[in-house]
Amino acid sequence: MRGRHSRRACWCRCRAPPLHAAAAGLAGAVAVPYPLAEEQGWAVAGEALRQVLRQARVRCHPKVLCIINPGDPTGHVLSRQSMEDIIRLVAEEHLLLLADEVQQERAFLPGCPFLSFKRVLWEMGAPLVSTVQLVSFYSLSKGFGGGGFRAGFFELVNIDPSVLKCFYTWGMSVYPSILGQVMLEMAMEPPLPSDPSYPAFNEQRQGLRRDLAHNARRVQEVLGRAPGICCQPVQGGARAFPRIQLPPRALQQARVLGLEPDVFFCQELREATGVVLAPGSEFGQPEGTYHIGLSLLLPAETLERVLLTLTRFHAAFLHSFS
Q1: DSSP class of residue 234?
Q2: Which CATH architecture has domain 9-187?
Q3: H-run or E-run covering 152
Q4: Are 102 and 152 in contact (CB under 8 A)?
């Protein structure tokens, strides 16, 4: 990899959906994952990120830093201090900051509010406000409107005018469906408190956050009592990312089958119970750790059944392979 990609650009990303790495590949870039500090609530560790950048420069040229806030699948929401540290880092390292903020409507804890990178950058003032290059993304499918609309927008800050021309040309041929355009217009100019539609609009947004907060709390309560399962607090997003213990015999069996250990666990869970979970290896995880992606968008009653099934199966799985 070092020789073949030595002159290519790097795209640094954290624990993220596989689509990010695929997009980097289509752009001719090399996706370079960086670690999050799980024990600190999946925080972005500045020194660890700098070390990844130093190592990446051996084989490619780091150009872009991708930050997902709220995190997917980890469910963390960045603090203002963390965001300021990231902005200073990209300024020092001369990186373009890609802020994946599509889950912002799903930040549901009052003590952990969502802040946009554009706002934090603006409030940090000169010289950063006029020098840091930022592209931020918003999506209806990950917001209060739910999936299926295939509409969103991205905003460019401090981007070279010659680059902007490329976006204008590309955008002329890409349009969402009519319904998506209508919903996007409402997202850009939402109803005011004096408008007749405001109560229904506000209840939709608040109801989504209440449901996510309830489900996140139940995940913490149930999995927190389960031996061999650990889940960091979820502050936003639509997934929890619990860490699961897998015994040595299970790891050996996974190797025999040519599978990642968490993929093996998820396949066994599906075959035995019908419950489908995403293995952590699809998103990237530290070596020697195993996780599962658990949706918080399920109805509360369904989630209770999934949690009960998961904890019982995991206990049986540990016993079977001990």
Answers
A1: P
A2: 3-Layer(aba) Sandwich (3.40)
A3: strand 152-157
A4: yes
Strand-pair partners of 81: none
All CATH 3.40.640.10 domain ranges of the chain, comma separated, are: 9-187
For residues 57-83, average pLDDT: 92
| 186-231 pLDDT per residue, tens | 888 889 999 999 999 889 889 989 999 999 999 999 999 999 999 9
What number of residues does the chain have?
322
Q: What is the pTM of this model?
A: 0.87
Sequence ranges of the chain with CATH classification 3.90.1150.10: 200-320
* Residue whose structure tokens are 């931020």: 136
3-state secondary structure 307-319: HHHHHHHHHHHHH
Q: What is the rounded CA–CA span in Å between residue 62 and residue 85?
A: 18
Tokens 């200073």, located at residue = 88
pLDDT band (50, 70, 90) for residue 14: low
Q: What DSSP state is assigned to residue 272?
A: H
The architecture (CATH level 2) of 200-320 comes to: Alpha-Beta Complex (3.90)
- Using the Cα atoms of residue 163, residue 22, residue 69 and residue 205 in order, give the sign of their dihedral: positive
The contacts of residue 13 (CB under 8 Å, 6+ apart) are 20, 21, 24, 31, 32, 33, 34, 66, 68
